[in-house]
Amino acid sequence: MLLRTIDGKGRVALGASFANLPVRIEADGYGEWKIRVIEAIPASEVWLMKNKEALNLVTTGILQARNHEFADDPTEGREYSWLDEVDVNVSDQVD
């Protein structure tokens, strides 16, 4: 248990181990507060945390990649020699 004193500007120092950590402070009754260290999620990415189906798909994909469970190569066993005849020099086509 830490015993601290609130300074004249209403601040409480928690110590160096808490320096630069994002926290949420919750009033938990008269004269009581909970201080929780949090991870901030950018607003543009918070939708994933709210969409359980999408989060499950992403989590599953990460676990599959970690376990080297990859899809088969869709080009394997197919014949693509006709691509040699395709002109891919785009600079010739730009006016």
Shape: elongated
How many β-strand stretches?
A: 2
Poorly predicted runs are none
The number of helices is 2
Task: Give the spatial strand order of the biggest sheet.
Answer: 1-2
Distance between the termini: 74 Å
Q: Please, could you describe this protein's structure?
A:
With 95 residues, this protein is of the alpha+beta class. Helices cover 21% and strands 11% of the residues. It contains 2 helices and 2 strands; from the N terminus they run ββαα. The protein is elongated and about 80 Å long. The termini are far apart. The mean pLDDT is 88.
Features of this protein?
95 residues, alpha+beta, two-stranded antiparallel sheet, 2 helices, 11% strand
Fold topology:
Layout: E1 23-27, E2 33-37, H1 46-50, H2 52-66
Antiparallel strand pairs: 1-2
Task: Provide a brief overview of the structure.
With 95 residues, this protein is of the alpha+beta class.
